[in-house]
UniProtKB/TrEMBL annotation, chain A:
This is ABC transporter permease. Pfam families: BPD_transp_2. The chain crosses the membrane at residues 44-65, 96-119, 126-143, 163-186, 207-235, 247-264, 269-289, 295-312. It is a multi-pass membrane protein. The lineage of its organism: Bacteria, Bacillati, Actinomycetota, Actinomycetes, Kitasatosporales. GO terms for molecular function: transmembrane transporter activity. Signal peptide: none annotated. It comes from Streptomyces phyllanthi.
From TrEMBL, chain B:
It is a multi-pass membrane protein. InterPro entries: ABC_transp_permease. GO terms for cellular component: plasma membrane. Its main location: membrane. The chain crosses the membrane at residues 40-57, 64-86, 92-111, 118-141, 161-181, 212-232, 244-263, 270-288, 294-311. This is ABC transporter permease.
UniProtKB/TrEMBL annotation, chain C:
GO terms for molecular function: ATP binding; ATP hydrolysis activity. It comes from Streptomyces phyllanthi. Residues 495-546 are annotated as: Disordered. Keywords: ATP-binding, Cell membrane, Membrane, Nucleotide-binding, Repeat, Sugar transport, Translocase, Transport. Residues 5-241, 253-498 form the ABC transporter domain. This is Sugar ABC transporter ATP-binding protein. PROSITE patterns: ABC_TRANSPORTER_1, ABC_TRANSPORTER_2.
Length: 317, 317, 546, 330
């Protein structure tokens, strides 16, 4: 763990991920000073709790983006895992079986994504889009259209409970970030992922196991989307087929706002944490102002572009 | 003569498969709808497909430059909204409304292009953020479905005008313009920048200008798609554009446009869009359960792309 | 006479690293100036200031009597009559040769560019640079050397008065170099100027009027060609005498081969190639450009699909992917450095460590990579191959070409390879480093490695290899070893595509003292080619290149 | 034979005595994934089965546009080409389908829209009054607050007619009460987690609100859940027959939580189908059928809430046939 901290500190110094945190701190400060309600502890707590749902998905997305992929099926997987877990848990299975089944299926989807990208050579964007579509259909068939509700105590306390005043969901997110950070920044597989993201031909010619790396990234991403689905199930107590939709593009936005290059091969997982928090904070800020929805979206778009201009530009030559 | 045919065929090998697929679909379609080749059917179908084809043409233009446009759906909605609301005010006839809508779309494209060219931000990121921006603007222009398009025009578009399928004519016109454009310096520059940006820059090309021009052209195609959709539906709807983003990408990729830029032809994209359009229609005719329709769509997309990659890889070796 | 171009006191730094220090030189009309210097001396950088790719921090560039405007750019430079071939290829692989030749300035009639017109106009330009290809071919389908000539044609298309050739001959074989020289002399005779950069000393002396030497970003000297020689320039460049460019060859009889390839065939590139690679031996693959040398190497590294039997230490092996090859301790330094050799966007450190991750993180793929061991490894390799980087964290693309090449080779050394495959290992490498690499390769061979090298540089093959197999249209047409390995015989076999047994005696006689390569090689070669030309010479390079 | 020629079907319909026989019915819906749609489909299917055994309907097909209005247009055109007799539609856009639907009408097809309605005057439209929905909720809330207080408004996605209409209805009511202040107007997908997040943001900016106007069940549930989780005062929140909300409401009733809810009844679909069949049979069906909004109050809550059913469902009782007949003018 101390290795991770040291490496992260070194990587963050003067990097774009550090910018994400800088901007986050400034925005938060501005919010506390100039907007109502952002100085309350309960709001803070709620913000990090709800940011965790997005954040967990975004951590997975980072793994895929670093190796120059993209996963548009996360929305489908979030719904898949929640729906399956709820249905199993509310039926005969019970909570533990439900969670296991949900995660196993999520991982399977990740494997399918990777197989399509690696073996069939379908571009990641199209492949994951297609699996997302297939998932939506498959879930309709599976649920026969009526997703269940379920109270799984473990998930309930995971989503809503607190540890020393800190929401468990946030703790879980940070834990996941630490594990994924170790995978990406310390382990051999992580190095392979960066190499693959920086250039496939050179990676192949250096003996990087392309297939295995892609599988690890896609399966981890799908697993994390599955975890997010479970936490959401705990949070809302119910599942629905559309519950993952908001996380598809927002997870990508978080990754990018966190300073990770969308082209792959460059970035830091911690940046994504900052990115997800920043995005959640911005949305919350905009919500707390009484603007029309159109203006709100314009402001959000302009803000994101502005931030990216400040620290996410790709240098040439 | 035969030589010319074989040369033409060789130049289009990548499209032959797609063409064959299209033929198969047409035959199947004919089976369900024997009136397929009647003028009325041609009018109806072309009216239906025109917006997607035009949107895909816009997406293709950007992809040829090595970019991708995730804000396409939003810009399409914006053009549609401007067209129908301006017309609703009765302030100067359809032509002015169309010109205005087109200008707005071109401007939106140029803004995207400027951000990509000057800011050094990856296109996918710029257009993702811009999608918030443009859909926000759309909501400001048109907060809820409405607007107005002259009934005569709607009727002429959807049911033919003195026996002429207007959408088909519009499509032919646009393709002719593209073909012409493709042989101008601007067209060649588009491919040159898409194929090797730095090389083009080092060889003295105004790569930034070319990019902005390309994105603006994409905006024009998208704007036309929006106007087409407005005329088809007789109104505007601020949220109707969204699905066009991903559908246009699917059509372009199916049509052989590379994600890396510089490779592909507009005719491929048109075929790709037709295949997607016909396929969805065919699924309606076959009466497969709606639950399974999504699954089948996804599977077919992946299968078609995988097959295409496989075939072209064999051919390339 | 007023100089056509004068560079006055220019300095340039990248992120605090000063790359040019008050560099000045001039080129007059009708003059060929050679810029000489080690890798990373700043040649390309100073030329980028002239072509508008970069702007100087201080100093100025004066072109045709007037300082270039602030908004100097490649576009303006071209319009002002400066044509250039950059060190890095700038072709669009997906467009036709003709479209590339006129890139950015396509001739059009009433706004439309006609393909036939384009091809017709491209043809004379291509002929001028000695290329006999269909202008409608996609540029990416051409072998590297031909692509480089297309670049030259592209530079000529704008009818430049100043032509800048930054290692424009690095991928060319002798015949192609001859074509470039023809163009250069033509231009000079018409009063134009040329700035010429190359790491092949012989070329420099063959074509330049003056030589300006750069060292560590500063001009150390400018010499008239008549008043200098090879050793003088090398001393100025490297800062010391350079003796024995090539190491001693291996002695004794050939040991038992380590890797045997029989009937090696890569469809469309080479067929029925037999090769024996033995520990301690450096084997070369010779021949004209694109006769299948590259594919043989790629096949042996599992990058090209092939048929045939390959055995390692007598055991048959299947090499169907680089991972297979690496597992059998085969290493490969590719020709295409930027896409296969190194990760240009990653740091030197990451590049060097990549193939050794298995040793840095033994155990499973989830094992943590040891940072200290990595640092040690990187420091060792940087030291051993004298890689010049600002720091190990510098991105590989910020290194000079020669140093990138060193990285591409160095990264394999810790993996303890048994077979080393090198494609054009010294392309774009300065003479000092070349010497280092030759000696390094020989040292590696002496340590028991089997080395296979391809090179377009005949002198290099003759000087370095114990044995050279000459490929012609994908087949081995001759094998030269020992005293039979001479430049003349190599060139002869390359262009004629047959073995030259009949001449053996005469050749050995003549070449007894020709071990030290002569500085005037190209003329010699051209002569040799001319000799052969009298006979009926088959068309070279007609093998399709995948 | 009804199928062979749509023109005869039309003339047959206008001549009084014709009986509906073996009708080919298609339903085009913009979404099929939300639970409400699923429930609607089931209810519709049950009615189809009934009509099938009565020999009135021969086939029934559902088409899912999956959120793509353009695809819905294709679906309608395909149904025209395939000579369907009845087209039911749940429209993805209030305007975009008009030309296609009118073309269907012109081809002699009986077109009935329900739930989310197109603006076309040529089709039969079965719906509830969305403006009335908004004003009903607003009136109740205003009454509950005695005409003064701060209110957060939770609305559906921007740019969608249903959402905008409900809000328009509410707004006219709130205008009448100058004491009521809308401190924040939140738009959200009908999706629990993001809605909860949006509500929490608005709420922490305005923690001293006196009530919440919500125009959708998931939004109400999100708001109420947030108040409960943060242990805050349970101010009145308007609602919908979303079971998750009803359950929460019931469980918090003892703690003084009070609400009102209405419903977009699933039986709209049944009424639509019955209306279509009646129309073919020659009954003069009114062009606009406005189904009264049910009212769920603190008193009759237990008649609706179904504690054993999933949260994501919309409990509603079937409408008696007699009332349906009355509505469709039989
Ligand atoms: N289209 C291009 N493709 C490749 N390189 C380019 C391109 N345009 C500019 N460059 C290079 O980037 C350098 C920076 O250009 P310029 O100073 O105009 O950009 P800028 O927007 O000011 O960027 P920055 O703020 O990073 O300096 C140029 O000197 C040139 O070498
Ligand atoms: N864009 C850049 N950013 C940082 N450093 C750079 C950049 N371009 C070049 N350098 C550095 O400047 C120095 C000079 O590089 P340059 O490419 O001019 O060398 P060169 O003389 O052309 O070498 P070679 O013979 O290998 O081509 C090198 O040390 C290189 O690392
Ligand atoms: Mg600048
Ligand atoms: Mg150089």
């Amino acid at each position: 763990m101390s290795g991770l901290v040291a490496v992260s500190a070194a990587a963050l110094r003067g990097s774009r991920a550090a910018w994400a945190f800088g901007v986050l701190a400034l925005t938060w400060l501005a919010a506390i000073l100039f907007a109502d309600g952002f100085d309350s502890v309960s709001n803070f707590r709620y913000l990090v709790q709800t940011a965790s749902f997005l954040g967990i998905v975004a951590v997975g997305q980072t793994l895929v983006v670093i190796m120059s992929g993209i996963d548009l099926s996360v929305s489908g997987v979030v719904a898949l895992s929640a729906v399956v877990c709820a249905k199993v848990a509310s039926g005969t299975g019970g909570g533990a079986t439900g969670i296991t089944a949900a995660l196993a299926l999520s991982a399977l989807v990740g494997a399918v994504n990777a197989a399509g990208v690696v073996w069939l050579r379908v571009p990641p964007m199209v492949m994951t889009l297609a699996t997302g579509t297939i998932l939506a259909g498959a879930l309709l068939v599976y649920t026969d259209g009526s997703p269940s509700s379920a109270a799984v105590p473990l998930l309930d306390s995971l989503a809503n409970g607190r540890l020393l005043g800190v929401p468990w969901a946030f703790v879980l997110w940070l834990g996941i970030t630490a594990v994924a950070g170790w995978l990406l920044h310390l382990s051999r597989t992580g190095r392979y992922a960066f190499a693959l993201g920086a250039g496939e031909s050179a990676a192949r010619a250096s003996g990087v196991p392309l297939g295995a790396t892609a599988f690890t990234a896609y399966v981890s991403c799908a697993l994390l989307a599955g975890v997010a689905g479970l936490v959401l199930l705990g949070f809302t107590g119910t599942s629905s087929l559309t519950m993952g939709n908001p996380y598809q593009l927002l997870s990508i936005a978080s990754v990018v706002l966190g300073g990770t290059s969308i082209l792959g091969g460059r970035g830091h997982l911690l940046g994504t944490v900052g990115g997800a928090l920043l995005l959640t904070l911005l949305t919350a800020l905009l919500t707390s102002w009484n603007l029309s929805e159109g203006v709100r979206q314009v402001v959000l778009g302009v803000l994101i572009i502005g931030l990216l201009l400040v620290y996410a530009r790709e240098r040439r030559t | 003569m035969r030589e010319r045919i074989t040369t033409a065929a060789r130049g289009n090998t990548d499209l032959l498969g797609l063409l064959a697929l299209l033929l198969v679909l047409l035959v199947a379609y004919q089976h369900y709808d024997p009136s397929l080749l009647s003028p009325a059917s041609v009018t109806i179908l072309s009216a239906q497909f025109l917006p997607l084809i035009l949107a895909a043409a816009g997406q293709t233009t950007v992809m040829l430059l090595g970019g991708i446009d995730l804000s396409l759906g939003a810009v399409l909605g914006l053009a549609m909204a401007v067209f129908a609301t301006y017309d609703a005010r009765g302030a100067g006839g359809v032509m002015t409304a169309a010109a205005l809508a087109l200008c707005v779309a071109v401007a939106a494209g140029a803004v995207n292009g400027t951000l990509v060219a000057y800011a050094g931000l990856p296109p996918i990121v710029v257009t993702l953020a811009a999608s918030f921006l443009w859909s926000g603007v759309t909501l400001v222009v048109l907060p809820q479905p409405g607007g107005h398009v002259p009934a005569g025009l709607v009727d002429a578009y959807n049911n033919g005008w003195y026996g002429i399928a207007l959408p088909a004519a519009a499509l032919a016109l646009v393709l002719a313009v593209w073909k012409l454009l493709r042989t101008t310096r601007h067209g060649l520059a588009l491919y040159a920048v898409g194929g090797n940006e730095h090389g083009a820059y080092a060889s003295g090309l105004h790569t930034r200008g070319v990019k902005i021009g390309g994105y603006a052209l994409a905006g024009a195609f998208t704007g036309l798609a929006g106007i087409g959709l407005a005329v088809q539906t007789g109104s505007a709807d601020p949220t109707i554009g969204t699905p066009y983003t991903l559908n246009s990408i699917a059509a372009s990729v199916l049509g052989g446009i590379s994600f890396f830029g510089g490779v592909g032809r507009m005719r491929g994209t048109v075929l790709g869009a037709l295949v997607i359009g016909l396929l969805t229609n065919l699924l309606l005719f076959t009466g497969i359960s709606p639950f399974y329709q999504l699954v089948i769509q996804g599977v077919i997309l992946v299968a078609a792309l995988a097959l295409k990659t496989y075939v072209t890889r064999e051919a390339a070796e | 006479m007023a100089p056509l171009l004068s560079v006055e006191q220019v300095s340039k730094s990248f992120a605090g690293n000063q790359v040019l220090k008050e560099v000045s030189f001039t080129v007059g009309p009708g003059e060929v100036l050679a810029l000489v210097g080690e890798n990373g001396a700043g040649k390309s950088t100073v030329l980028s200031l002239v072509t508008g790719l970069l702007t100087p921090d201080s100093g100025r560039v004066v072109h045709e009597g007037a300082p270039v405007p602030r908004a100097w750019s490649p576009h303006r430079a071209r319009a002002a009559g400066i044509g250039s071939v950059h060190q890095e290829l700038s072709l669009n692989p997906h467009q036709s040769v003709a479209e590339n030749v006129f890139l950015g300035a396509w001739p059009s009639r009433r706004g439309l560019v006609r393909a036939r017109d384009l091809a017709a106009r491209a043809r004379p330009l291509l002929e001028r640079v000695g290329l006999d290809i269909d202008p409608r071919t996609r540029a990416g389908r051409l072998p590297l050397g031909r692509q480089q000539l297309v670049e030259l044609a592209k530079a000529l298309a704008s009818e430049p008065r100043l032509l800048i050739l930054d290692e424009a001959t690095s991928a060319l074989d002798e015949e192609q170099v001859g074509a470039v020289f023809r163009v250069v002399r033509e231009l000079r005779d018409q009063g134009g100027s040329v700035i010429f950069v190359s790491h092949r000393m012989a070329e420099l002396f063959a074509v330049s009027d003056r030589l300006t030497v750069l060292k560590d970003g500063a001009v150390t000297a400018t010499r008239e060609r008549e008043r200098t020689d090879h050793d003088d320039i090398v001393r100025l460049m490297v800062g010391r005498e350079l003796s024995d460019l090539f190491p001693e060859k291996g002695t004794g009889t050939a040991p038992e081969p380590l890797l045997r390839a029989r009937d090696l065939t890569v469809p469309g590139a080479c067929s029925s190639v037999d090769l024996d690679l033995a520990p301690g031996r450096v084997v070369g693959l010779g021949g004209l450009q694109g006769q299948g040398q590259r594919e043989v190497l790629r096949a042996l590294f599992g990058l090209a699909r092939h048929t045939g039997r390959i055995t390692l230490e007598g055991r048959p092996v299947r090499l169907s992917s680089p991972r297979d090859a690496i597992r059998h301790r085969v290493a490969y330094v590719p020709e295409d450095r930027k896409t296969e050799g190194v990760h240009t966007a990653r740091s030197v450190r990451d590049n060097l460590a990549l193939p050794s991750l298995r040793t840095l993180a033994p155990g499973s793929r989830l094992t943590t990579v040891s940072r200290t061991a990595e640092t040690r490894l990187v420091a060792e390799l940087t030291e051993r191959l004298r890689i010049r980087a600002a720091s190990p964290a510098q991105e590989a693309r910020r290194l000079s070409g020669g140093n990138q090449q060193k990285v591409a080779l160095a990264k394999w050394l810790p993996a303890d390879p048994r077979v080393l495959l090198l494609a054009e290992p010294t392309r774009g490498i300065d003479i000092g480093t070349k010497r280092e690499i030759y000696h390094l390769l020989r040292r590696l061979a002496d340590e028991g490695l089997a080395v296979l090298v391809t090179s377009g540089d005949t002198m290099e093959l003759v000087g370095l290899c114990d044995e050279v197999a000459v490929l012609y249209e994908g087949r081995v047409v001759d094998r030269l070893a020992g005293p039979a390995l001479t430049e003349e015989r190599l060139v002869r076999a390359s262009v004629m595509g047959t073995a030259t047994e009949t001449d053996t005696e005469k050749d050995t006689e003549k070449d007894t003292e020709a071990d030290e390569p002569s500085a005037l090689l190209p003329q010699q070669v051209a002569q040799a080619i001319d000799d052969i030309d009298d006979g009926d010479r088959p068309e070279p390079g007609s093998v399709a290149h995948a | 034979n009804v199928e062979s020629d749509s023109d005869t079907a039309k003339s047959g319909a206008s001549a009084s005595a014709a009986a509906a026989k073996d009708l080919k019915v298609g339903w085009s819906t913009i979404y099929l994934t939300p639970s409400w749609m699923q429930q609607t489909l089931k209810m519709l299917q049950a009615d189809v089965d009934k009509l099938k055994s009565a020999g009135k309907v021969s086939t029934f097909k559902t088409f899912n546009a999956n959120g793509d209005t353009s695809q819905q247009i294709s679906q309608i055109r395909a149904m025209i080409q395939q000579k369907y007799d009845v087209i039911l539609v749940d429209a993805g856009s209030s305007t975009a389908l008009n030309p296609a639907l009118e073309q269907a009408v012109a081809a002699g097809i009986t077109v009935v829209a329900f739930d989310s309605l197109p603006t076309s005057k040529k089709v039969i439209r079965v719906g509830t009054d969305q403006k009335a929905w908004g004003s009903m909720m607003a009136e109740w809330l205003a009454g509950k607050l005695d005409g003064k207080g701060s209110v957060i408004a939770m609305n559906g996605p921007a740019g969608v007619a249903v959402s905008e209409d409900r809000w328009a209805g509410a707004e006219t009511v709130f205008k009448k009460y100058p004491g009521i202040k809308i401190v924040s107007n939140v738009h959200s997908e009908y999706n629990l987690a993001p809605a909860a997040q949006s509500f929490a943001s608005a709420y922490s900016a305005h923690p001293d609100i006196d009530g919440v106007f919500s125009q959708g069940g998931a939004l109400s549930a999100a708001a109420l859940q947030t108040l409960i989780k943060q242990d805050k005062k349970l101010v009145p929140i308007t609602g919908e027959n979303y079971n998750g909300f009803l359950k929460l409401w019931k469980s918090k009733q003892k703690e003084g939580f009070s609400s009102i809810a209405t419903a977009q009844p699933n039986y709209l679909s049944v009424i639509a189908l019955e209306a279509a069949v009646a129309k073919v049979e020659g009954v003069s069906v009114p062009q606009d059928i406005t189904v009264p909004l049910p009212e769920i109050t603190d008193d009759n809550l237990s008649e609706y809430v179904q504690t054993d059913q999933p949260d994501d469902s919309y409990p509603i009782n079937d409408m008696p046939q007699s009332e349906i007949d009355k509505l469709i003018g039989k």
